[in-house]
Design a protein that fits this description.
five-stranded mixed beta sheet
């Protein structure tokens, strides 16, 4: 393809054709009238045709000049519009990737609250279930149980406790003095039963003779499954907190434990042009996270059931 003429020459011609004056074009571009004339002559030499009829006043475009001007005028207008838009809205969109459970149950319902607190910051929330398929270069913040990607720093979050959750109907069938009573119900597992095995070990319970297990791929799905009636799942405040506060789920907080793989982390890109917006999001998230922690709320109210 024919290489494009120099941008300076195209700018000089576009301004001259639009203003019908070498002098006015020079004033707009902060160069002399002779510099504008020189750039246009260079452009005509490269294109091999005359663009301006200099014998007429005010200046008139030739047929070739009119064709080129129509294209340049639209192109420069669009470039100016885009640049103006970017200048007026610097760094307003934060790209956030979050693990499925926390994206669906925690972040998505709260983004409007963040926008109310920081109306000048726009966000893009992306949900991802597998760290291996996440292109970290596209995001400013990453939230999940994944390790810190290269080029990111990590904000320490609260220690995450997991606990059994179930519907109010299932809750009424349990012996609240005996954690082993959960074994009489259908147990949902997102870790091939390892989550319940660790829970049993930390509760110092013997393995039951029979165990009803149903497998799902995510803790979010297990939590959703038990909300309809039968069954018990292991969940946490990020996933089940809003449902517990709404009364659609019951949380057995005294029977809590920590999964080796269940700690959430907030990773951010340091030195970003959007550092101020990143700091605002981190501050807001950490404050909301503490307020929504079921265990912290229960401890403050002294409402934990003693097994």
């Amino acid at each position: 393809m024919q290489p494009l003429p120099p941008l300076k020459a195209l700018q000089a011609f576009e301004a001259t054709a639009r203003l019908h004056s070498f002098s006015a074009a020079g004033q707009e571009l902060f160069v002399s009238q002779s510099a504008i004339s020189h750039q246009i002559r260079l452009l005509e030499q490269q294109l091999g045709c005359s663009l301006i009829n200099r014998k007429q006043q005010p200046l008139q475009l030739t047929e070739q000049g009119a064709t080129l001007f129509s294209v340049l005028q639209e192109s420069f207008f669009r470039m100016r519009s885009v640049c103006q838009h970017l200048v007026q809205q610097p760094g307003r969109r934060l790209a956030i990737a979050a693990q499925t459970s926390i994206a669906v149950e925690f972040l998505a319902p709260r983004l409007n609250a963040f926008r109310s607190a920081y109306p000048q910051v726009d966000t893009l929330l992306h949900m991802e279930s597998n760290a291996a398929s996440l292109d970290v270069s596209q995001f400013d913040l990453i939230l999940g149980t994944w390790p810190c990607p290269s080029g990111f720093a990590t904000v320490a979050l609260r220690p995450e406790w997991w606990f059994p959750v179930c519907s109010p109907a299932q809750y009424a069938k349990l012996d609240l003095t005996d954690p082993a009573s959960v074994f009489g119900a259908l147990l949902y597992s997102s870790e091939q039963g390892q989550d319940w095995q660790l829970w049993r070990q930390q509760m110092q319970l013997n393995a039951p003779a029979q165990l009803q297990l149903r497998q799902v791929s995510l803790a979010l799905l297990a939590t959703k499954a038990v909300s309809s009636g039968e069954g018990i799942a292991l969940s946490n405040s990020f996933i089940a907190g809003d449902a517990v506060r709404a009364g659609t789920l019951k949380a057995l907080l005294p029977w809590r434990y920590q999964l080796p793989w269940g700690q959430y982390q907030l990773h951010y890109r340091p030195g970003s042009q959007q550092q101020q917006q990143i700091n605002q999001f981190v501050q807001w998230f950490c404050a909301d996270m503490q307020q929504s922690d079921l265990l912290a709320t229960a401890d403050q109210q002294n409402t934990l059931i003693q097994p």
